[in-house]
Amino acid sequence: MASLRNANPRLKNYFKENYIPQVCEALLCGILVTCPEDPLRFLEGMIMVIIKSGLQNLLWDTCIAPSMKPNIRRLSETYLEQLFELDDQLMTPELMIKACSFYTGHLVKTHFCTWRDITHKNENVALADKMNRAVTCYDFRLQKSVFHHWHSYMEDQKEKLKNMVLRIQRIIYCHKLTIILTKWRNKARCKNKKKEDELMSKHELQLKKWRNRLLLKGASAEKSNFPEQSSSEVCLVDETLECDISQLPERAILQIFFYLSLKDVLICGQVNHAWMLMTQLSSLWNAIDFSTVKHAIPDKYIVSTLQRWHLNVLRLNFRGCLLRPKTFRSAKSSKNIYTGHYESLMPSLGPNCCRLLVWNYISPDAVPKIHRQAGCHCRNLQELNVSDCPTFTDESMRHISEGCPGVLYLNLSNTTITNRTMRLLPRHFHNLQNLSLAYCRRFTDKGLQYLNLGNGCHKLIYLDLSGCTQDLNVLSRHKKLKELSVSACYRITDDGIQAFCKNSLILECLDVSYCSQLSDMIIKALAIYCINLTSLSIAGCPKITDSVMEMLSAKCHYLHILDISGCVLLTDQILDDLQIGCKQLRILRMQYCTNISKNAAERMSSKVQQQEYNSNDPPRWFRYDREGNPLTQPENITSSKGHLELTVEKSTYSSEEEAV
Questions:
Q1: Is the pLDDT of residue 566 over 90?
Q2: What is the mean pLDDT of the chain?
Q3: With contact defined as beta carbons under 8 Å apart, do 428 and 402 qualify?
Q4: In this predicted model, what pLDDT tens digit does every residue of 494-508 receive, in sequence order?
């Protein structure tokens, strides 16, 4: 067979693709190993076997019986591959050069390593010496570090021991002081109790004597059958004076007079000099309520009262009073003090008030001198109520703001204030916490923005905007508000409530009642952002559904008070959700909930302390029907509200009544 070394490449590829060398190798190996008697028949049979098994699975020992297969390597480098020139690893000059270079490099590396080992034998001794010195140095540093930690620990223990000794000494000293103060307190209590017992026994003795004398007088009057009663009445009055309440402790006197109105206190001051002094106790005038006598007292007497007690007054109530600007200036300054003759104070309080004693018995000649020396402001005023005062203006508010910077509670409901007053609030009332602007409709959104300017009213925690026409978006900066009331505000929207809730994470009480334009979006906002909500009123909101109330009950677990009156789309499902999620619910109002059954309401009444329920149609002043559709001609709201109060009284369920 001639060599194919110089054959056509196409022929070489043909031999390679059809596995000609592998077939020849397998047949030749089979003949050489088995040595068959008829080689041609053997080759014919093996060719058939190769055809069945396929050329891809052809091995060099395929034509050899399994029992005769030799344990030798495959004939992959036989002369056949060289003959057909199909071996890719034939010995070439390039391979010879590469093999020689590898052998030379390996020989050099072997001799170099041997030389290196010989040269490094002497260095091992020096390295061992260095290692010993390093170990010694490491041990020394370790001992030094341990000693340093031990020293620090001992210093800390000494400091703790010293502090403990000082603390024990302080505790012993405080214990001694506690023992001394306890003994002193017990002794003072015993002495005070003894004094009170003596005083009470004295009063009881006087009362007993007065009763005995009264009985004797009555018996003598019956015997003598004397018709005149005037002399006996005079005697009885004289004897009753012996039981004088002015001898009681000051705290008991104050507690008695706290139950009286301003009119009754002034009348009591006319009895005698002792009673007048009792009515002039400074603590009695911390709270002055002029609303109870607004139709019976002129402005000048209010001015004189304020100027007399300007240092003591903490709470003022002018609700519904028709006052002039001079009256409000008296709350600012105590100039022109009217020391107060009782004979000219409140002549219309009654027929027995025509002749009264003066407050401080100051002669009229001394009044001008007091006018010149007075100039103090009511800087202790903390609560001011001027609601329903038609004469209260921005100028009145200016006088109050300049002289009373410490106001914490301010009620301006239903007054005629404008943006000028809203500009004064953040300038002067930095500590204001409670502000009521209900039904004040003369200031605009810009006036409401003033609460955020400058120092602002950043301590404000309660705000009442009921019945106002302003937008709620301007309140998004007030992050400390805990209570907000926007009842009957027809201009607020779902977006405004959402913007406010995002920045009011500590909101606890919210009143959006009678805002029929609000939808489920406000409940979703409350459930997401205001999880600390304790009180919620959505009465008169007909668009609220069960789905969002379920979300509210799942998030707001601290809800105590809930008013859903007039929510006509709510069903019995909400009561089941409230029982599961709001276990702290105490007060539940469900007036005019047409889709809530009576049985479900009765079951719910055992879970709360107070419950109001009826399934009647919403009154016409709600301005929508039982389906939530708006009415075209709403009737008079005032008369309908009276009907609502009557219905609420008749339909109240309480847990106590159910228990009975």
A1: yes
A2: 78
A3: yes
A4: 888 888 888 888 999
| Bigger pLDDT: 313 vs 235 | 313
DSSP class of residue 442 equals S
For the segment 329-380, what is each residue's pLDDT rounded down to a tens digit?
A: 555 544 433 334 344 444 444 443 333 333 333 333 333 332 332 233 577 8
Taking the model in full, what pTM does it have? 0.57
Buried b (16+ CB within 10 A) or exposed e, 393-416: bbebbbbbbebbbebbbbbbbbbb
At position 28, the amino acid (one-letter code) is L
Neighbours of 231 (CB within 10 A): 9
211 — phi, psi (to 5°)? -65, -40
SS3 for 612-640 is EECCCCCCHHHCECCCCCECCCCCCHHHH
CB 444 within 8 A of CB 417: no
What are the phi and psi torsion angles at 436 (to 5°)? -120, 120
User: Can you give 323-381 as a three-state secondary structure string?
Assistant: CCHHHHHHHHCCCCCCCCEHHHCCHHHCHHHCCCCECCCCCHHHHHHHHHHCCCCCCCC
Report the amino acid identity of residue 544: I
Number of residues that this document lists for the chain: 660
Distance CA 572, CA 185 (A): 61
Give which of 339, 338, 337, 343 is closest to 270, Cα–Cα. 343
Sign of the torsion formed by the C-alpha atoms of 416, 467, 499 and 459: positive
Q: Read off the pLDDT of each residue in 381-406 and give the average, rounded to a whole number.
A: 88
Phi-psi map region of 326: left, alpha, beta (phi>0 left; psi -120 to 50 alpha): alpha
Distance CA 552, CA 515 (A): 19
Q: What b/e readout covers 356-391, taking b as 16+ CB neighbours within 10 angstroms? A: bebbeeeeeeeeeebeeeeeebbeebbbbbbbbbeb
Query: SS3 for 157?
Result: helix
